[in-house]
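User: Structure please.
Assistant: Input sequence and predicted structure:
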Amino acid sequence: MRARRRLGRDFGLLWAAYAVSAYGSGLAFGALPLVAVLVLRAGPAEVALLSAAGPAVGALLALPLAPWVDRRRKRPVMITADLIRCAALTSIPLAYAVGRLTFAQVLAVSVVSAAARVTFGAAGGALLRSFVAPGDLLVAQARFESTNWSSLAVGPPLGGAAIGLFGPVATIVADASGHLLSALAIGATRGGRKARPGPAGTALRAASPVAGEGGGRGGAVLRGWRHLLGDPGLRALFLNQLLVSGLMMATEPLLAVLLLRDLALPPWQYGLVFAVPCLGGLIGSRLAPRVVARHGRDRVVRIVGTLRVVWLPGLALVPAGVAGVVTVTAVELAIVLHMSLYSPVVAACRLERTPEHLVARTLTAWSLGQQASLALCTTLGGLLAALTGPRPALAAAGLLALATPLLLPRPGQLAPPAGEPAGGRR
């Protein structure tokens, strides 16, 4: 079966690096806001600032680094980003141990970690292209996706237990250790296959409206945006993803208020309704290569891209009691299943349609746009909920989500560049 194909030693090490980092972050899911609340007695405004502004500012800081990353060897960039994250996170338990931890430090760690994460991901996309053949990108991305969902399924419950046993900064130590192990795994890679000169790569570079390298530093920073918005297929995927991810993330704090305050759900049930659906992520990500091989990428993007949002209005109809737990779990399971099937297809397509000299800039532009959308939609959702309550705000997010399939690519817009396989066997 294609999904079980061996993709080589270097990819295996890159996957291992991603896994240890993802599981460390899964254990530390929500750790910084938790430390802010439990240790620093931060209020709602400070927690909101930490959750929204930290990642958004971090992504903004990473944007000027993207042209530099595109011109550098990717392994040292990724190792450096991992070590920076490790050092930043380690500063929190050290400051906590000596009684010097402040909210400003936690916010700074959030910003630095976010900037390093975006830089790591941008360099990682380019490195992945050198480790696997173009026709194997979907299989590789599906494996990353399954690892991500498995880390979210098991990490938060184990992290909660670790905090109960060892204190509020225990999971931050685990997260820092994961980044250190990730740096070691990346350092053990030997280097991937050489880029294949030929008509496909030449055509993609020539077709890109940003193939030239003139225009100064500002122009270099903007080339990722120009590439995203200049390619009709990528533009449609990007705009759709901005709105969908923003609306979905906007429902999280609203759902927390509805379940924990209005419906008085016990904390363990609240954790359960988000942990169980992550198992759907394992299923969807593993199915992605087979589904694309059978039905074609265009059809999968349009149908699955629609199915991942049609369930969202159901969150506004959650009843009380056990029925509410079952309803939320079922809705979240359906959403996660289709998201995990859709995401690796889009990630592979994004790499396939981006020239090698623009990968870091394109991925950084994508990350920054997504972080800005998350911050904006979450803020607007909170304001609406303050005026109307969580149910009307959830209903509004769900109804807006039903319009997002109109932004999906039209048939033929995601055709691979000439000479490149569409995710099939080479």
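Confidence is low (pLDDT under 50) at residues 194-215, 419-426.
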